[in-house]
Design a protein that fits this description.
The protein is an alpha+beta fold. The protein has a domain of 147 residues: Alpha-D-Glucose-1,6-Bisphosphate, Chain A, domain 4 (2-Layer Sandwich), CATH 3.30.530. Helices cover 45% and strands 32% of the residues. Strands 1, 2, 3, 4, 5, 6, 7 and 8 form an 8-stranded mixed β-sheet that branches. The longest helix is centred in the C-terminal third of the chain and has 30 residues. It is globular, with a radius of gyration of 27 Å.
Amino acid sequence: MKLEHTFVVPAPVEQTWAAFNDLERVVPCFPGATLTTYDGDEFTGSCKVKLGPVSLQYSGNGTFLERDPADHHAVIEAKGKDRRGNGTATARVTARLAEAGPGSTEVTVDTDLTITGRPAQFGRGLIQDVSNKLLDQFTTCLKTKLDTTPTDNSPQPHDTPTPHDTPTPHDAPATHDEPAAHDAPPASAPPPPPDAPPLTASSEPAAVSLDLGNTVLPILARRAAPYLIGAVLALLLRRLIRR
């Protein structure tokens, strides 16, 4: 089946293109996806998907078949297999980036998807709706990453005041009195360093499985609503006729 998506990113074309080519930065934006290895045009990874009581974990590899930085055009082919043998998935993704306005980029993604196993029970329309919702989450995450890029380049003004402020209070008492040196050890509080590792460890949301239950059920309910209403009306008419 073929899926088509178009969205706009509030960043220049070159910046967006660089982000799309940085898989270590982009892959975590897709719910449930984890990048395992990345070398040149080859990469491997996994994706955890949960469809109600059914849990799927695809593992596979992908290749950049085309990558044109001048035209901002890329073609990726990816293949994956569920570890429990519940199905396979093959996708050929074509992405095109174009300037949508000052400081914004329009991204067009065409996907030729082939799936087997339990996920194949869903039709193209449902998969298109689900992929639209997933793309919304991906786009939101990508926008936040692109928004934080300029702020990462501005630590220099924060670093300059700290060295000026720290040496003056600590050096002044240390040179005049020796007791100040005794006060320095408690002031150097070693507890803060152990607080830093938990912050880095918390940046691992990519391993969380993608639960499509909350996404699929509302779509199924919306699609089934007309049929349910029709069935209820038919039942009421039948009862009225019998009377």
